[in-house]
Amino acid sequence: MDAARPPRGLVWRLRALHALDRLRVARLHRRHPGLEIHRDAGASLAHAHYRMARDARLRIGPGVVTERRPGALRFLLEPGAEVVIGAGSWLRTDLGPVVIAAFAGARIELGPECFLNGSHLSAKRSLTLGRRAWVGPGSRVFDADQHDFDAERPEQAEPVEVGDHTWVGSDVTILRGVRIGSHSIIGARSVVTRSIPDHTLAFGTPAAPRGEVGDRSHAR
Prior knowledge:
mainly beta
């Protein structure tokens, strides 16, 4: 039915915006030699903020999407850093900015179908999210102390890993050296200072196991 079709003018306007975004992506590739945005990734990635050292590498896989909100998605990569965004991931910015910061020599990897919802990832060594790992609004994942404690206790960094099919709720903080097991859930406003086993519900400050979680492979 004709009534179900969008106005022709709107269709042409959307097509024009999409074409302009693709041109912006092409310019970004020229500006940042280490940037690889797959041709099947969302054109709205053209509106993210990219601050990359010349030898840093950022690979964004097919099907990765974000909202068309200029500067709401921010990539900050220092010299020698590497960031990989797995296929089908959603970097959602309508509830808050998404910040992915890799300091000198650090590596951040998101597995396929990850979901970052207004959250912040920061690595000075290594940070890994598994397949379909979800990180909720206002949550932060750090693999380092961020600053020296004092003259005798310098900053420390240890790898952080969030397993497959894991759900990190809103306003959670995950600290260095933590491994959160696959199919686990971290409750809202928790502070995770120690590793959490697979299939575990954990929450609190500090977060502690409170129950069991079944198979989340098909959770929505």
